[in-house]
Amino acid sequence: MILVTGATGFLGAELAKELILRGNRIRCTKRASSTIPQILQPYAAKIDWVNADLMDATALEDALDGITQVYNCAAFVSLKQADKEPMIRTNVRGTANLVDLCNERNIRMVHTSSVAAVGEAKPGEMITENHHLDSSTETDGYAISKLESEMEVWRGIAEGLDAVIVNPTIIIGASAGTTGSGQIFETVRKGLKFYTKGTIGFVDVQDVAKCMIALMETTISGERYIINAENRAYKQLFEEIAGCLGVPASKTLAKPWMMELAWRGASLIGAITGKAPALDKTSARAASVIREFDNSKIKQAIGFEFRPVSDTIKEVCSALKG
């Protein structure tokens, strides 16, 4: 039997749906307070939902009864500075608990990390799986939590765990709605005035799910894979989204000093309202950085061809307009 952790999240839900469409009956973990995603509601008879937080080792033990494969998509994500340490602690400890139990029970795992844990390449070079984040200089809580969680998986692999790691770029898809990466589309729809000079990778959520399933079905172990369809300049992305939505494209380049003011302002508003800031320091600075990711390793490993980002953009925009 297959277990999906984090199945109430954007990627986890799409992965669970893909597994069901392939004829599997699956088990999914959720928190007691979590709501079952709309895209999974038609498949209630195919899913065994269990309340199990990764921090609760006892509940996790029960959830793993009879399981032979685990897709780990669970993660605590927050831009709030106050959540930095709890986020790191929760993601790392939760992953360690799952790794230890999978190792004890000889369960194969596909672990979802992020390109936030991959690090940087030299100027003009593409980022590959051989690049690693420098934990001594990194300050972003999410990146640190992903790096240290990934290190727990590597520890498990050294101890005999059968596992592979995926590092997706920015995951997009209609089921994100207006949260997460969906905020990009919603912000453009509402009238984004500025663009930045940065470049980043994008990938369709269904492609990430398909890559994870394909990797699970191989005998590959002890490897990490960047999951990326295309590298896009933010300017190009914003223009394409604006064109699909029928709204004016952003015309003004946001200089680094403007982004610096923007994140500081967002941080102040967040401190006053108690809500997560719309923009944090790391995101603001990353928006002006050119980061291009090499996807050749995953394509060679499973013979995968990615869906064009333009097709996903059209699908997301159609859902927003609908």
Radius of gyration based on Cα positions: 19 Å
Query: What is the string of SSEs from the N terminus onward?
Result: EHEEHEHEHEEHEEHEEHEHHHH
Describe the main β-sheet briefly: 7 strands, parallel
Uncertain segments are none
Question: What's the CATH C level of one domain?
Answer: Alpha Beta
For the record, give the distance between the C-alpha atoms at the N and C termini, rounded to a whole number: 37 Å
Main β-sheet, spatial strand arrangement: 3-2-1-4-5-6-10
Could you please describe the fold and organization of this structure?
Pfam families: Epimerase. It comes from Mucilaginibacter rigui. Residues 2-225 form the NAD-dependent epimerase/dehydratase domain. This is SDR family NAD(P)-dependent oxidoreductase. With 322 residues, the protein is an alpha/beta fold. The chain has a domain at 2-177 and 202-229 and 294-310: NAD(P)-binding Rossmann-like Domain (Rossmann fold). It is built from 11 helices and 12 strands. The protein has helices spanning 10-21, 57-63, 84-105, 141-158, 182-191, 205-216, 234-245, 256-273, 281-286, 296-302, 309-321, and strands at residues 2-5, 26-30, 47-51, 69-72, 108-112, 163-168, 170-172, 194-195, 199-204, 223-227, 230-233, 252-253. The mean pLDDT is 86.
